[in-house]
């Protein structure tokens, strides 16, 4: 089993769920539009959603005509919500950790993951496993926290600001040191892995993939202007990075 299952911590789950349900959240406003744009047509496809959480993406993929969607996640609470609120005939939710994906006895046309690979200790192995789980010409599209955003120790402000609080520039901490970071986010000792951009690219390529597209967080200027406190950092540092990889 993985070391951390923080989404089953009551406090963490309630906080995350409330944020995810809020109209103005990073998942729906930044992540979802970009990953949706990068996905291939899903009609008739067998889809695997890794770290499916509360099932919002799985539901969306099922309604886009996927033949089947398998959502896997470590968290009982997240899967409980998914089963209750985002189920469909062509969706199966299963409690499973990334580390056991190589035991799946199925093949997929499209493998996707939204903001879950921050928790993977062995990214290189995961990429190889995903490559093996895809049928020939299959596609993996995923998002994760951007290496610039995980180069953070949770202690200082992410931004250097003017006396009035306006963000001047983003601060990086130990970008060149990879590995697990324990920071405070909702709870103490929240665990996330930091990797350099070159490591992500090399691990994807070494697994055998062709990288077809890479994106970083972006937002229309009017949204940033409308919610400067929430999204004002996007012009200084990308929160998320996205890849579309072809087998
Ligand atoms: C930020 S949430 C994203 C959920 C969903 N993909 C979304 O976009 O709303 C990260 C998810 O990864 C799951 N996760 C973390 N570590 C995991 C592991 N080792 N194996 C499987 N899932 C894991 C968490 O339980 C959580 O549901």
What layout of secondary structure does this protein have?
Layout: H1 10-21, H2 26-38, E1 46-50, H3 56-63, E2 68-73, H4 76-85, E3 91-95, E4 108-114, H5 123-133, E5 134-145, H6 147-150, E6 159-161, E7 167-170, E8 179-185, E9 187-194, H7 197-206, E10 210-216, H8 221-226, H9 228-231, E11 240-246
Parallel strand pairs: 1-2, 1-4, 2-3, 4-5
Antiparallel strand pairs: 5-11, 6-7, 8-9, 10-11
The structure holds S-adenosylmethionine.
S-adenosylmethionine (SAM) binds at residues 2, 7, 27, 51-54, 56-57, 73-75, 78, 97-98, 114-116, 119.
Helicity range? 25-40%
* Ligand catalogue: S-adenosylmethionine
Gap from first CA to last CA:
28 Å
CATH-assigned fold name = Rossmann fold
- For the secondary structure, the number of strands is 11
Contiguous runs where pLDDT drops below 50 for at least 5 residues? none
**Beta-strand percentage?**
25-35%
CATH class membership: Alpha Beta
